[in-house]
Design a protein that fits this description.
- The chain is of the alpha/beta class.
- The chain folds into 2 domains: 9-153, Fructose-1,6-Bisphosphatase, Chain A, domain 1 (2-Layer Sandwich); 162-217, D-Maltodextrin-Binding Protein, domain 2 (3-Layer(aba) Sandwich), CATH 3.40.190.
- Helices cover 29% and strands 26% of the residues.
- It contains 5 helices and 12 strands.
- A 7-stranded mixed beta sheet has the order 3-4-5-6-7-8-9, with helices on both faces. Strands 11-10-12 form a 3-stranded parallel beta sheet, covered by helices on one side.
- Strand 8 and strand 9 form a beta hairpin.
- Helix 1 (9-31) packs antiparallel against helix 2.
- The longest helix has 23 residues, at 9-31.
């Protein structure tokens, strides 16, 4: 990618505004959680997907592609489409579906944007915590709390010793994957300040960026390496 065809700062801000608006709209819809959620299984019997995952993804696709029909989509629930504009929206309609299914806080709505394969915009809306995290390539990362007049730059932890590191992690759905993760945790836990497990990898990563966690690890969280955690 060259500087000549890279999106301008103004263009990226417009795309960020679109991503934030879509993520927050989906998050608001999801807060109206039905009492009788219908669920299906995906990669394993415990890998749940609800009707609300699908409704959230459909709303995100509609809002993100409004006036931008040539953009591509990579969707957690199958809304994939190839675009011709060089832009591709990467969406997870509910990261932390099990939290959502059980009525627990901490789930999130995630919207990312790639330009010619490179990430340029990212948004993670966490409505049960009243916060949205967002970043633009080359322009920094921020958190915005509901009701606030402006966003605040994210400041990560300065902890450099493992013994003082409050560390986030997560677990896979397959029992064989969890067994391996438990073995790692047995060795690692005595070396850390403590472990936290929120149920949303996106929130964990944002908390590292915001200094709320000192570190995060989870083997197999990268798509394609194992069934994704929800």
């Amino acid at each position: 990618m060259t500087s000549q065809n890279y999106p301008s700062d103004g263009a990226l801000q417009d795309l960020l505004a679109r991503a934030r608006s879509a993520a927050q709209a989906a998050a608001s819809m999801l807060l109206e959680r039905p009492a009788d959620l219908q669920t299906e299984s995906k990669t394993t019997a415990t890998d749940a997907v609800t009707i609300m995952d699908k409704r959230s993804e459909a709303l995100l696709v509609e809002l993100l592609l409004d006036g931008r029909p040539d953009d591509g989509i990579l969707g957690e629930e199958g809304s994939d489409r190839i675009g011709t504009s060089g832009y591709r929206w990467v969406i997870d309609p509910i990261d932390g579906t099990v939290n959502y299914l059980y009525g627990l806080p901490g789930w999130s709505v995630c919207v990312g944007l790639e330009y010619q394969g490179a990430p340029v915009v990212g948004v993670v809306a966490v409505p049960t915590h009243g916060v949205t995290y967002f970043a633009v390539a080359g322009q920094g990362a921020f958190e915005w709390f509901e009701g606030a007049h402006e966003a605040v730059p994210l400041v990560p932890s300065t902890v450099s010793e493992l013994a003082f590191a409050l560390t986030g992690t997560g677990f896979g759905y397959a029992s064989s994957r969890r067994a391996g993760q438990a073995r790692v945790l047995t060795h690692l836990l005595p070396e850390l300040r403590d472990i936290r497990r929120t149920g949303s990898a996106a929130v964990d990563i944002c908390w590292v960026a915001a200094g709320k966690l000192d570190a995060y690890f989870e083997k197999g969280c990268i798509p394609g390496t194992s069934p994704r955690r929800r």
